[in-house]
Amino acid sequence: MEELFSISIGCCQLLEAGHHIRWAPGLKLSWRWLAVAGEVPVLTMIILLCFMPNSPRFLISKGKNDEAVRVLRWLRGQNTDFRREFEQIKESVRQQSRRISCAEIKDPFIYKPILIAVLMRFLQQLSGVTPILVYLQSIFQSTAVILKPEYDAAIVGGVRLASVLIAAVSMDKAGRKILLFVSAGIMFASNLILGLYIHYTSLPSHNSTMAIVNGTLVSPESLTAEPSGYITLIPLVATMLFIMGYAMGWGPITWLLMSEILPLKARGVASGLCVLVSWLTAFALTRFFLLVVVDFGLEVPFLFFAVICAGNLIFTGCCVPETKGRSLEQIESYFRTGRRSFMRNHI
């Protein structure tokens, strides 16, 4: 979903600027056949969803308690205390069915998890992932990477896929917070390296006039510059590290935590608010990315992203709770009472 939104933003920006868009051929397929190939996982997901049972929470909300118990027993296992969890879910569904009042919003139990979730979505986008993905080939062309931009983009895409798989395997073993720390640290280092590389090389900086040609960032130097050595692999390696760090933590885990920590009775509205803040931030950042590059140089956005990633480390340590192995009811009890004992149960 993030990739599709990134592409949409990029196309809108290019159309608004009045530039001619010329679709580049893929490595193996044209973009049309690539779009057709993208339908395969979607159709596979639709088929697999036919075999997926309804969630116990949904069944309880529809009054199908016996079926909810059977599904919960199948999900958790015969030898677990699924009856107790059934009662907890039943109570939380009862509370969720009540409309939240304006007075309740002032309760820390309500606004604290909402504020954490909104800030996580805001900081995730502010770390620079959307403009980097949108202008990936343009950034590689501007930094004169020794490989062709389309090959660089394919390599970065492969790294992102592998990193998502690593996150999926390790998320419930290592925990959410440790992956967020590692993710933010890698993104900070990669953005800092890329910003300093651009600043201390002969690549476009604030002293050279930059322009946008067919959606590509160029300068008088880069129009005729050719890759001069393996040192030009630094932007590629730094970008690969950034994408790897993002895909391991701040990419998927922010979505997961949003669904885990938001209070049940305000989950619908709060989720919509988080998504709204996320995409508005992504749009604004992509909208001003080219303007900042043209006026101040390509290194400035990456140094700004590095500062944000450093802030993500502090935010993770101070504000984000560890939710590994905790039920939604335990997490809600933690925010309601502030007692960490609720978060230490059933680890």
TrEMBL record:
InterPro entries reported for this sequence: MFS_dom (IPR020846), MFS_sugar_transport-like (IPR005828), MFS_trans_sf (IPR036259), MFS_Trehalose_Transporter (IPR050549), Sugar/inositol_transpt (IPR003663), Sugar_transporter_CS (IPR005829)
Cell compartments where the protein resides: Cell membrane
Keywords (A to Z) from UniProt: Cell membrane, Membrane, Sugar transport, Transmembrane, Transmembrane helix, Transport
GO molecular function: transmembrane transporter activity
Domain Major facilitator superfamily (MFS) profile span(s) in chain numbering: 1-324
GO cellular component: plasma membrane
Entry membrane topology: Multi-pass membrane protein
Pfam families registered for this protein in UniProt: Sugar_tr
Name of the protein this chain belongs to: Solute carrier family 2, facilitated glucose transporter member 6
Primary site of residence: membrane
Positions in coiled-coil regions: none
Keyword ATP-binding belongs to the record: no
SUPFAM superfamilies: MFS general substrate transporter
Transmembrane segments: 33-52, 178-200, 230-257, 269-294, 300-320
